[in-house]
Amino acid sequence: MKLIQILFIYITLLSGCSNNGEPGNAYNPGSTEQGAKFLALGDSYTIGQSVTEAERWPVLLVKSLKNAGAQFRSPDIIATTGWTTKDLTFSVDNAKPATDYDLVSLMIGVNNQFQERSIDEYRSEFRNLLTKSIALAGGKADRVFVMSIPDWGSTPYGESDRANIAKEIDAFNLVAKDECDKQKVIFIDITPLSRRAASDPSLLARDNLHYSGKMHQLWVDAVLPRIKARI
Questions:
Q1: What is the pLDDT of residues 142-154, one digit of tens each?
Q2: Residue 203 has what DSSP assignment?
């Protein structure tokens, strides 16, 4: 069953590519925009696979922050579809971002679960990424937040193994929360929101594997009240 899932998902990702390929990083360290700096680290959910740039949750979050009176420039994003914790670690190290971000987010792990990577490996690599995230926020843990791993079992591609996928996603999220608690980093559980897609197709992107702009906005609505007091 897992082999069939992998094949279907691979085909879906290929068919969802634009002429320019998969959506990748939106990292622009040379930006001349004014305002506070936000760096979003992650995978397909952060870069917004199968949604427009304007529908990506980091972009929507900056829009909401501006509406709330905060002055932020466009977000920097280091994220690509398919990345595991190891891939993200390599890419952050390679990009060498500045260490003066006013806000840093981390949302990673779904590909660890999908590729059947060990949960012990995830803990070690997630802990390392969390430490890097704090460093990128100038050493201020209160300027970092983590979003839980969405449950892709709520999509049509996970329907045949929904209960097992949910169980595994929950286990990975428990590890992420535990590491966040140790470092006093905000952990925001958006997984229940992702599970609404099982009964609401409007929350799915056109590839039926990722989530729509409407879902991305729900995530922002969950994040905003948790971070407003800290920026």
A1: 999 999 999 999 9
A2: G
pTM for this entry: 0.90
CA neighbor of 163 nearest in space, from 174, 150, 154, 175: 154
Mean pLDDT of 113-119: 97
Query: What's the pLDDT at 158?
Result: 95
Contacts with 18 (C-beta within 8 Å, 6 or more apart), sequence order: none
Are the CB atoms for 104 and 41 separated by under 8 Å?
A: yes
The residue type at 195: R
Q: Which two tokens stand for residue 103?
A: 């806000």
Alpha helices in 69-150 (DSSP H): 85-95, 110-114, 119-136
Q: Tokens for 91?
A: 């890419």
Question: pLDDT by residue (tens digit) across 72-90?
Answer: 999 999 999 999 999 999 9
Collapsed DSSP state (helix, strand, coil) of residue 10? helix
Contact 151, 3 (CB under 8 A): no
Please list the residues that pair with 211 across neighbouring strands. 204
The rounded distance, in Å, linking the Cα atoms of 68 and 109 is 30
Would you call 155 helix, strand, or coil by DSSP? Answer: coil
